[in-house]
Amino acid sequence: MVTGGNATVFISKMDESLKFYTEVLGMNVTSHYGDDWATVAAGGFEIGLHPKGEKQPAPGTRGATMVGLMVDDIQAAQARLQQAGVTLAGEIQAGDGGSFLHFHDPDGNELYLWQMPKW
Are 112 and 102 within 8 A, CB to CB? Predict the structure, then answer.
């Protein structure tokens, strides 16, 4: 049924968002149409970056979007985020479902890192 897709994140500044998702998170640009649309991807997961508009939700609106990004080493990823000046929303939370670390992109959209549990 579903063979692909992406999570769309509404943004205010394309250049700033592309820099964050590529330089800070290490994702790759897979398409870029000026300030109208871009996609970034890593490990088979793709995020569409869509500029704000009259019919779209405001960037960073609480609950409008949350994107989970899988990582192999959450402590190393945490260090990279901190080195890049990203404000974390708390500490790493570990449980039966794995380890999670929440943070926000430049527009206030919530993202989280997820390291799968070692079964």
Answer: yes
User: CATH number for the domain including 12?
Assistant: 3.10.180.10
Distances in Å between the alpha carbon of 102 and those of 15, 54, 92, 99?
23, 28, 8, 10
The predicted model scores a pTM of 0.74
In whole angstroms, give the CA distance from residue 11 to residue 18: 10
Type of residue found at 82: Q
Domains in the chain, number: 1
CA angle 96, 45, 92 (to 5 degrees): 35
Domain presence at residue 43: yes
Q: pLDDT by residue (tens digit) across 40-50?
A: 999 888 999 98
